[in-house]
Amino acid sequence: MTYSRIIGTGSYLPEKVLTNADLEKLVDTNEDWIYSRTGIRQRRIAADDEFTCDLAERAALNAIASAGILNNQIDLILVATTTADQVFPSTACLLQHRLGIAGPPAFDVQAVCAGFLFAMDVADKFIKTGSAKCALVVGAETFSRIIDWSDRRTCVLFGDGAGAVVLKADNEPGILSTHLHCDGKYKNLLCVPVGVSKNFNQIKAGTAFTTMQGREVFRWAVTAMSDIVDETLNANGMNRDDIDWLVPHQANIRIINAVGKRAGIPPEKVVVTIDRHGNTSAASVPLAFDEAVRDGRIQSGHHVLLEGFGGGFTWGSAMVKM
Ligand code: ACO
After folding, report:
1. CATH of domain 177-321
2. Active site residue 113
3. N or C: which end of the chain has fewer CB within 10 A?
4. 173 and 321 in contact (C-beta within 8 Å)?
5. Would you call the peptide bond into 313 cis, given omega within 30 degrees of 0 as the criterion?
6. Domain at 3-172: CATH code
7. Is 143 in the pocket of ligand 1 (CB under 6 A)?
8. Each residue of 249-287: pLDDT tens digit?
9. CB of 281 closer than 6 A to ligand 1?
């Protein structure tokens, strides 16, 4: 049996820091409201001439370096993103060219904030079925580009960034299981209701923005991200004490705390970056994961549960043995 193992992680954050105090100058808000309701103190914002593929490239190079492989050993590239550089070619194609690789498949995966889990699932299946031996999986976003910076209900929540992992075929797991879900009937609760085929004028006018019904999203996120912990544990015959680390999507500290409480996972086993990153959508899980690997919290042999939740709704998880 062939499994996939994570052999390297990486991430990248743009230089520009946007604090809550900065936001007080843009909209009618304040540090107390933002921090107490969301747990966010600051987020990073891409420079005007910095695009999703630029962030993806920096994160990918860090992951490749930590894996100790050569670029040309990669035979699959997946980029999870909601904020692609171009309509086409895909950001994964652009990234492949930057990395000097030609030939193997490269494509984007769109599942908004759960996108990295969806991409991990696809890469895992490529490796398990023998279609790939070494996959680069990236979550990268410039979400700041689809935010209305005059809307205080959304602009305080999001940030930009990228995270990446390298997966390699191995006789030992690795990724123990992945779990994906969608329910499109909630499409209007969290969305950018325009695209190339619909209301394209809003894109041309620069008014293609994220809209969200925060309370409903909050309730759903807690339920879905708690239930998927149980689903993942049951699939592996594990119990909550077997989890060394939970790396949840970083949308709101109150969501993260509620999920931890419902799932019975103590706060000291939960990786949190929301205070410094905000919600970076598909980049949030690999960014948090890389941070905890690099600072030595996540170690070889640990069981790590990664989980994401996003617009659609979409949600997913992966149980990983390091
Ligand atoms: N500053 C000050 N006041 C604000 C702000 C702000 N930035 N935003 C909203 N308010 C006001 C509202 O206008 C409202 O005022 P009113 O009572 O006079 O009408 C009041 O604060 C309460 O607003 P609520 O929306 O009810 O506040 P809530 O406690 O629900 O917090 C929040 C809002 C933080 C958005 C919360 O609902 C949440 O986190 N929801 C989930 C968001 C999320 O997870 N999104 C992403 C998930 S998926 C993905 O990542 C794409």
Report:
1. 3.40.47.10
2. yes
3. N
4. yes
5. yes
6. 3.40.47.10
7. no
8. 999 999 999 999 999 999 999 999 999 999 999 999 999
9. yes
